[in-house]
């Protein structure tokens, strides 16, 4: 007896629904995505850091290009930019910022150890990964300086990681790295090829191709014309306001060691941004600057939005708000309203900084990482934790003197990864602490797992359909339907 028409229709409908549901997901997963925004955390080699600052090298390290510190011994590189293909798992992302190591100071004031590592790039394809970086190093013995771009510095151990099918953000956690032969050479020979380096962690945002813009309607054309006329009138009015500007930003990280103290084991605290202030990792941005600027005299008087509040153990309670900047005669002063222990002092001059070349170029008057020192009043604001004259974080300042000019972009750290964004990798023999590829709303290989799940349902539906047919031919149920050594660098 043939199966009923309704039963056959039900099986066919189920097949169609499942196929229809799966195809859009597969298509979406296959589309290549752009990496835009995110961070890479890497200590390079923590024992090398200790060696540089220890009793042998007696050196130090400094951050460049907006790099920051995070945790006990990691550097944070920012503003991820690149591409990701969910279909193949191919991933390429460059990051901004660098670290400059110096040590073994000689009698002439130069350093025998002089190494800069910057602009790290992670590339993953076909299950293998490499970390590239710009490297400037001084050869031991000869002192010859070598400047190399995007050196393949380290290989990544990607065992157990499935890079396919991830959504945003894409995250990797504690991926082991190993020094390459080219990296060893660029490292000035302090380590040999095959030496383990610190693991990396990263989190980046991805986005698909932009939707095509619809053709403007006649009404939109009229609105655009009116807006243009308003803009023209606004520009004319602004020109009449001699020296006035309405768009500026000042970037200042306060002091790196202070930030580390606040969030470390002693301060056990945090900072809170409000009123428009933004966090760039190694710096804080106070934006929406307004005031006056004289291009000929290179003078500035500006106020900015934003506040930052540091709190923690040992009665740590310090807030900066109402930030202002004044520039005259080649020197700048950054002031703020300072609140501590419930008392507020207005317009306290915190730091002074060099501002010798503040002429506008291409519509922007810019100072980049100008060295800054603490004032006497600034020392009091910090409860005399630092003496007057102490070197503070540098200041970057940008003033738009042309309506078309755009302020420099703030370091982009991307979305904050969460525990939910880091499911375990695909099944393997790796231990539970193995690195993972992560996605916020689905696990690694989510597209693969979804397709597998849909395939199981599809096979089940097909089995049900053919079972109905076989039943009609006098056969029983389809039995096959359910089968299917020392870490110190080398110094000699």
TrEMBL record:
Htaa domain segment(s): 38-203, 248-397
Comp. bias regions, Polar residues: 483-492
InterPro entries: Htaa (IPR007331)
Pfam families per the UniProt record, alphabetical: HtaA
UniProt-annotated stretches for the region Disordered: 202-240, 408-440, 472-492
Keywords assigned by UniProt, alphabetized: Membrane, Signal, Transmembrane, Transmembrane helix
Protein name as catalogued: Htaa domain-containing protein
Organism: Streptomyces microflavus (Streptomyces lipmanii)
Low complexity biased stretches: 415-440
Regions crossing the membrane: 449-468
Feature: compositional bias, Basic and acidic residues: 216-240
Residues spanning the signal sequence: 1-30
